[in-house]
């Protein structure tokens, strides 16, 4: 229907924006006066050890946060789904992280992670473990970020999985039950495949979201450095810093573009996989 | 026989060892839920502390509770106006946005037109450019259209969201083919099919989407800050920014504001929750309706 | 069917365009009065004070109106200014940092104030400028022209916990040696409760302040003749080593995860710290009545250096001449002695004029709030540091190296040597680009 086409196109308005920017600003200097075009920005970015660090961190994030988050939220959603009594009260609890601003949540986590006064180290002390410099030592910067990110993503993912689980017609499961199948095989063979679409959506979105990690770092570590010795530097943080703090617009755009290509490639791979399994 | 099975399905495991494991898991999930709530407890606690106790480590560091923080926030910022703005923008944006997204997702799933895959990929691509970078060009466009400081600037760009479209595309493509054939056999137009069959079927998902959109819209601070200048036009989260300065931050005020921000969303969630947990409408019923 | 969609779309568009709020641009003419916008980043009580001044101004000068626009914090203010500049929607007046102005001036966005200063009608008489503390004025001038005027200025001072110092018989340090000694004496396990008290604290922003400690140690960090940075000199090494040494020995700490030193200071975890006088209001809050505290001039290294921070007011090259003149009048009004003193009282920033400082009202204020005295005393230092030229080139490198050095990952020699190398490389690249143009 032509009318629907119009609507679909309208939905692409921001897309045009995005590409307009990338091409436009890629090599430009301030105020759209193009002094020079060239691949210099890109070569700088790829040779910059800071960018490499950011890239490594971001990939690390993707690889750790996404699976952890998906498994955790799926498990939680499943429990909520099968224990109706509790779930009415527990659901909001898992939903809340989604609602609060990252800043507020980060503040609470900063307290949790406080080296001297935080609950985490207090618990460790109680268990006889040494205190950890969660937010102050370079080694623990990324783990802290990962923990926080997983926590923060649970709200979104649990909600989606929950809705997805409820969309599965219960007959299949019931039939399997009557046939005497036990929990785990039932889950694996019936529930999981029916969740396929939601799973793919969540995985793609989680990857993208992990890539875009910026707010979490900013809120958790404050604006000066991305964690002690920049150990929690992510690609987007790098872009932000180059753009707003150092006014290196060209480099920022080049870095963003590079990151974009990476994630885009990852996503295409995931899409292909979902298509092949019979979408 | 049927009844007993259903009971078991709801309650958990039936074997004795299984029951213990079930209980343990229940406790575990409850604990997890509590862990999720912990930051909010903290947030609320900080918002009720006087300034010199803000950063003290004990949860209940002082009695009596310092409700005056909320009053301070109320006096410092035009909260009522901000609230109205946030509400208005969110309502329009989400309402129209959901409709648009439904149509777009439908178009993607049920029509195969040339360039469909490319468009879909491009749509996904927009998600991957950091928001911060897009800020300025979007602002330039908006300014060029003369929308600065108007509701239009706040609401329209948020109406379309690639995540949303992509999500609905997934959801819609899960609708079994038979429905479509049946509808076509009945001679129903695609739009009728969309609104009479697909939407009711996917209601929980659509509602979820609307909810998520609402939250994102409600909490957005960067964009509203950029496109608005006058106090009359700003939204709630922008008020948050005004509470932190370069020499320090009044965390207790910040948290009070955050609590104020969160409460309406929790409210919204409870309203919607009922509909999310709805039983999936039986396929046969729907078919008869259309 | 199509009609339905058309209806929906038109409704959408109608909603979008017709639903308007304020539709001002950077300023309009409103019923005879020339209105203009002043973008700032003052929140909370600071904003209230500013609003008072603005309201007074609007009353006194009915033919012009200033409209205050709060843009959040400095970061968002900067973002907005950049965005607005690109969209050609800059406000007529804004609060800016001197290093932002570097960029803006280079792009021709800022209007020179010199013609307004010397204007026979609305200009300033001679003493208008000389009355302003030169240390504040310096960074606003470039090549003989004034591009901005100082607005809210603060200086770094030493905060100290009087109760604690008295209890252990430690006097307020006035030199670096005394400072080190005092820190060592005041670092101990907490007498009540768990945890430790550390002698001295440094804000996280100390990463950006290598210049300060270099100067205090008697060194120079930049050689204008050769155009190269000179961080790797003995004096500078001494300066940075001083800070690093204290951190390493555990008698000093960074704000770290607490973000601002006012927090641990208020908790009693730290005996003294170096921070901006703008933090006085926050320290008042976090300390409450828990202990007595005050401020002092920062202990002297080889030199006494006043580290000035804060913003200025700049006029952008937009709007009509009426608006600009109105803006100029507001600037004049804002920076008048009376208002400057008022501003200082309400906010804890410094009065920018000698006459404001000497005014009765400020003197009374200082008497009842002794903790603000040190700030004005600090102004009388041997040397001053406000903006650093080419900071945008040096800062990124410095921050990284300072962090590495202060956290103990690099030796001071190595860190400074690397800093020098990196900065000079950047400067050379910049020069090459300039030549290409």
Description:
The complex is a heterotrimer of chains A (279), B (290) and C (437). Chain A is mainly α. Chain A is 76% helix and 0% strand. Chain A has 14 helices and no strands. In chain A, helix 4 (49-82) runs antiparallel to helix 11 (196-211), helix 4 packs across helix 13 and helix 6 crosses helix 12. The model of chain A is unreliable at 29-35 (pLDDT under 50). Chain B is mostly helical and 290 residues long. Chain B has two domains: 2-69, no CATH class; 79-289, MetI-like fold (Orthogonal Bundle). Chain B starts with a helix and ends with a helix. Residues 1-8 and 14-30 of chain C have low confidence and may be disordered. In chain C, strands 1, 2, 3, 4, 7, 8, 9, 12, 13, 14, 15 and 16 form a twelve-stranded mixed sheet that branches. A two-stranded antiparallel sheet of chain C has the order 5-6. Chain C folds into two domains: 29-154 and 310-383, D-Maltodextrin-Binding Protein, domain 2 (3-Layer(aba) Sandwich), CATH 3.40.190.10; 155-308 and 387-436, Periplasmic binding protein-like II (D-Maltodextrin-Binding Protein, domain 2, 3-Layer(aba) Sandwich), CATH 3.40.190. Chain C is built from 20 helices and 16 strands. Chains A and B meet through helix 1, helix 2, helix 4, helix 5 and helix 6 of A and helix 1, helix 2, helix 4, helix 5 and helix 6 of B.
Question: What is the gist of this entry?
Answer:
With 290 residues, chain B is mainly alpha-helical. Chain B is built from 15 helices and no strands. In chain C, the strands form 3 sheets. In chain C, strands 1, 2, 3, 4, 7, 8, 9, 12, 13, 14, 15 and 16 form a 12-stranded mixed β-sheet that branches.
């Amino acid at each position: 229907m032509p009318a629907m086409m119009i609507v679909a196109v309208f939905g692409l308005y921001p897309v045009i924006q995005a590409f307009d920017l990338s091409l436009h600003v890629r090599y430009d200097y301030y105020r759209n006066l193009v002094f020079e075009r060239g691949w210099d920005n890109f070569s700088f970015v790829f040779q910059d050890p800071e960018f490499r660090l950011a890239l490594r961190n971001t990939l690390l994030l993707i690889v750790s946060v996404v699976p952890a988050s998906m498994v955790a939220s799926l498990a939680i959603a499943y429990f909520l789904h099968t224990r109706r009594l509790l779930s009415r009260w527990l659901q909001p609890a898992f939903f809340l992280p989604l609602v609060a601003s990252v800043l507020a949540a980060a503040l609470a986590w900063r307290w949790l992670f406080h080296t001297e006064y935080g609950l985490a180290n207090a618990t460790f002390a109680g268990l006889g473990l040494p205190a950890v410099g969660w937010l102050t030592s370079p080694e623990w910067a990324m783990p802290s970020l990962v923990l926080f990110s997983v926590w923060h993503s649970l709200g979104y993912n649990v909600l989606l999985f929950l809705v997805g689980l409820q969309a599965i017609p219960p007959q299949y499961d019931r039939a399997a039950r009557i046939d005497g199948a036990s929990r785990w095989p039932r889950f694996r063979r019936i529930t999981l495949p029916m969740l396929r679409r939601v799973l793919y959506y969540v995985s793609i979105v989680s990857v993208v979201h992990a890539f875009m990690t910026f707010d979490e770092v900013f809120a958790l570590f404050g604006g000066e450095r991305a964690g002690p010795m920049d150990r929690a530097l992510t690609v987007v943080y790098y872009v932000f810093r180059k753009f707003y703090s150092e006014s290196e617009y060209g480099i920022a755009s080049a870095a963003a573009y590079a990151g974009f290509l990476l994630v885009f490639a990852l996503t295409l791979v995931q899409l292909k996989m979902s298509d092949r399994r019979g979408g | 026989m049927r009844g007993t099975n259903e009971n078991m399905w709801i309650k958990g495991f039936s074997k004795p060892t299984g029951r213990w494991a079930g209980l343990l898991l229940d406790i575990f999930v409850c604990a997890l839920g509590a862990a999720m709530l912990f930051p909010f407890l903290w947030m609320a606690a900080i918002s009720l502390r006087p300034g010199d106790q803000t950063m003290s480590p004990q949860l209940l560091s002082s009695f009596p509770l310092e409700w005056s923080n909320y009053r301070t926030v109320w006096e410092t910022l035009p909260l009522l106006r901000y609230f109205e703005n946030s509400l208005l923008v969110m309502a329009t944006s989400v309402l129209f946005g959901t409709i648009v997204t439904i149509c777009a997702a439908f178009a993607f799933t049920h029509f195969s037109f040339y360039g469909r895959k490319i468009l879909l990929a491009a749509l996904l691509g927009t998600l991957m450019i950091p928001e911060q970078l897009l800020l300025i060009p979007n602002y330039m466009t908006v300014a060029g259209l003369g929308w600065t400081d108007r509701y239009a600037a706040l609401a329209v760009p948020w109406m379309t969201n690639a995540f949303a479209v992509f999500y609905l595309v997934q959801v819609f493509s899960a609708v079994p083919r038979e429905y479509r054939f049946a509808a076509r056999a009945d001679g129903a137009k695609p739009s009728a099919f969309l609104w009479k069959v697909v939407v009711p079927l996917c209601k929980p998902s659509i509602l979820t989407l609307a909810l998520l959109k609402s939250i994102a819209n409600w909490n957005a601070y960067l964009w509203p800050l950029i496109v608005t200048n006058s106090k009359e036009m700003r939204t709630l989260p922008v008020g948050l920014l005004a509470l932190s300065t370069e020499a320090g931050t009044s965390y207790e005020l910040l948290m009070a504001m955050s609590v104020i921000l969160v409460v309406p969303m929790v409210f919204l969630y409870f309203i919607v929750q009922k509909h999310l947990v709805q039983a999936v409408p039986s396929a046969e019923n729907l078919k008869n309706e259309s | 069917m199509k009609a339905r969609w058309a209806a929906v779309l038109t409704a959408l568009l109608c909603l979008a365009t017709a639903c308007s709020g304020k539709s001002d641009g950077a300023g309009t003419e409103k019923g005879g009065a020339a209105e203009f916008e002043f973008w700032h980043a003052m929140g909370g009580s600071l904003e209230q004070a500013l609003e008072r001044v603005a309201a007074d101004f609007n009353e006194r000068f009915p033919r012009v109106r200033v409209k205050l626009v709060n843009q959040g914090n400095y970061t968002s203010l900067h973002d907005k200014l950049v965005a607005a500049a690109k969209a050609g929607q800059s406000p007529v007046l804004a609060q800016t940092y001197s290093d932002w102005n570097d960029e803006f001036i280079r792009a021709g966005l800022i209007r020179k104030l010199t013609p307004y200063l010397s204007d026979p009608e609305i200009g300033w008489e001679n003493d208008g400028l000389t009355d302003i503390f030169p240390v504040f004025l310096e960074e606003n001038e470039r090549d003989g022209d004034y591009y901005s005027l100082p607005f809210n200025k603060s200086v770094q001072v030493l905060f100290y916990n009087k109760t604690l110092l008295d209890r252990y018989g430690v006097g307020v340090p006035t030199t670096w040696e005394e400072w080190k000694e005092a820190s060592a004496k005041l670092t101990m396990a907490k007498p009540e409760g768990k945890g430790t008290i550390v002698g001295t604290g440094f804000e996280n922003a100390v990463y950006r302040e290598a210049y300060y400690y270099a100067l205090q140690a008697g060194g120079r960090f930049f050689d204008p003749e050769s155009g190269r940075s000179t961080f790797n000199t003995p004096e500078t090494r001494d300066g940075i080593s001083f800070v690093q040494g204290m951190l390493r020995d555990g008698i000093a700490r960074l704000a770290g995860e607490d973000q601002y030193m006012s927090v641990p200071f208020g908790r009693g975890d730290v005996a003294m710290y170096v921070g901006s006088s703008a933090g006085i209001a926050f320290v008042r809050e976090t300390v409450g009545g828990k202990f007595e505290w005050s401020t002092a001039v920062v202990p002297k290294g080889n030199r006494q250096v006043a580290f000035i921070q804060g913003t200025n007011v700049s006029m952008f090259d937009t709007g009509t001449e009426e608006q600009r003149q109105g803006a100029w009048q507001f600037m004049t009004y804002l920076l008048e002695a009376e208002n400057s003193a008022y501003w200082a009282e309400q906010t804890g920033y410094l009065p920018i004029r000698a006459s404001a400082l000497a005014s009765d009202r400020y003197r009374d204020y200082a008497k009842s709030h002794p903790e603000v005295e040190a700030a004005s005393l600090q102004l009388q230092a041997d040397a001053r540091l406000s903006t650093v030229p080419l900071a945008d080139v040096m800062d990124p490198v410095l921050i990284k190296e300072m962090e590495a050095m202060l956290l103990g990952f690099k030796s001071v020699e190595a860190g400074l040597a690397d800093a020098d190398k990196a900065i000079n490389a950047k400067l050379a690249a910049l020069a090459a680009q300039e030549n290409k143009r």
